[in-house]
Amino acid sequence: MTTIGFIGLGNMGAPMAANLVKAGHTVIGYDLSAQNAAAAQAEGVAIAATAADAVRDADVVVTMLPAGKHVLSVWGDVLAHARRGALFIDSSTIDVDSAREAHGLAQKAGVASLDAPVSGGTGGAKAGTLTFMCGGAGDAFARGKPILEAMGKKIVHCGDAGAGQAAKICNNMILGVSMIGVCEAFVLGEKLGLSHQALFDVASTSSGQCWSLTTYCPVPGPVPTSPANNGYNPGFAAALMLKDLKLSQDAAASAGASTPLGAHAAQLYAAFEAAGAGGKDFSGIIEALREGLA
Ligand code: NAD
Fold first, then answer.
1. 44 ligand 1 Cβ < 6 A
2. Of 39, 136, 215, 252, which residue is most buried, by most CB within 10 angstroms?
3. In this structure, are 15 and 133 located in the same domain?
4. Pathway it belongs to (predicted)?
5. Rounded to the nearest whole angstrom, what is the distance from the C-alpha of residue 81 to the centroid of ligand 1?
6. Is the CB of 181 under 6 A from ligand 1?
7. Is 123 close to ligand 1, i.e. is its CB under 6 Å away?
């Protein structure tokens, strides 16, 4: 089995590290938060005193951190302490430019690397059913895949350095735009006297069908497991959706892509967050649309 360094033991990282332990790997973790580190320790993760100590003996290092600046700072600090030939995997959701910069740092240090952001949320992290979207060289992907399989059920090689992050933010731009579209249709239907169930029954079997409607329906009733039935508790918090939409807009600006609906979705989620709703599930934006958010 493999010795794995794991840096960033938060809502996602802790259950992911716990699944690596369950798969029989030796996991040496590190987190700035003593409380988060202690929670991971209770799941069998050995806790190192410093990030450098977590990577020193590791064949594979996984990072699960908030944003690009954290990943670049941690990789910049610890790569010099890593074994030559180790594999570094960043599973955080970060901007494509920082992801490519991180690959460059690894290459200079003689370390293989993958960007491997995830979808599936904290539920998927606990259940070990995440989807990993990977960018990097084919041999790095081949080495990383069996490790990622302990934490996920679908592991996709999307292309070279940064391609995993590109796939993640493109997917989440579709999600943000489609959720707002579904919410708008329910709000319009309400004004037209159409019941939620009738609209759901028609649209879920017609050309309006999409995940935001059929799996994550933003009104209570038609899909009993959706956050709408639970006071819009996340789920996937609106603040995280805003983060991903901003990443998509940064990438669109730097690549010269026209994404007008992505841009408007980012504005709407920014207004939703500014109104104090960033901690609600992202489908809760339907409440603001009812009140006239435009
Ligand atoms: P989180 O805030 O719960 O965890 C981040 C952890 O990183 C914290 O424990 C924090 O103390 C630690 N940390 C920050 N800087 C550090 C440093 N320099 N050294 C060591 N530890 C450090 O966040 P999360 O929900 O676990 O998300 C992590 C990443 O996964 C983010 O990029 C997020 O966008 C992405 N993501 C989250 C979800 C979700 O549903 N929560 C879903 C998919 C992707």
1. no
2. 136
3. yes
4. Amino-acid degradation; L-valine degradation
5. 22
6. no
7. no
From first to last of the 294 residues of the chain, give the pLDDT tens digit: 899 999 999 999 999 999 999 999 999 999 999 999 999 999 999 999 999 999 999 999 999 999 999 999 999 999 999 999 999 999 999 999 999 999 999 999 999 999 999 998 888 999 999 999 999 999 999 999 999 999 999 999 999 999 999 999 999 999 999 999 999 999 999 999 999 999 999 999 999 999 999 999 999 999 999 999 999 999 899 999 999 999 999 999 999 999 999 999 999 999 999 999 999 999 999 999 999 999
The domain boundary residue, chosen from 160, 195, 216: 160
Active site residues: 168
User: End-to-end alpha-carbon separation of the chain, Å?
Assistant: 53
CA 96 – ligand 1 centroid, Å = 17
The residue segments making up the domain with residue 185 are 166-290
Q: Which residues, including other chains, have CB under 8 Å from residue 20's CB and lie 6 or more apart?
A: 4, 6, 27, 62, 147, 150, 151
CATH number, domain at 183? 1.10.1040.10
Q: How far is the CA of 206 from the centre of ligand 1 (A)?
A: 38
Q: What's this model's pTM, rounded to 2 decimal places? A: 0.94
List, for residues 173-225, the tens digit of each pLDDT value. 999 999 999 999 999 999 999 999 999 999 999 999 999 999 999 999 999 99
Indicate whether residue 236 lines ligand 1 (CB < 6 A).
yes
pLDDT digits (tens, 9 = 90+) for 237-260: 999 999 999 999 999 999 999 999
Task: Return the percent helix, strand and coil in the chain, to nearest 5.
Answer: 55, 15, 30
Beta bridge partners of 281: 237
Q: Which long-range contacts (CB under 8 A, 24 or more apart) does 194-200 make?
A: 196/220, 196/221, 196/222, 197/221, 197/222
Q: What is the CATH number of the domain that holds 140?
A: 3.40.50.720
ipTM over 0.95: yes
Best residue for ligand 1 mutational test, from 9, 11, 133 (most atoms within 8 Å of Cβ):
11
3-class secondary structure, 36: helix
Distance in Å, CA 205 to ligand 1 centroid: 37
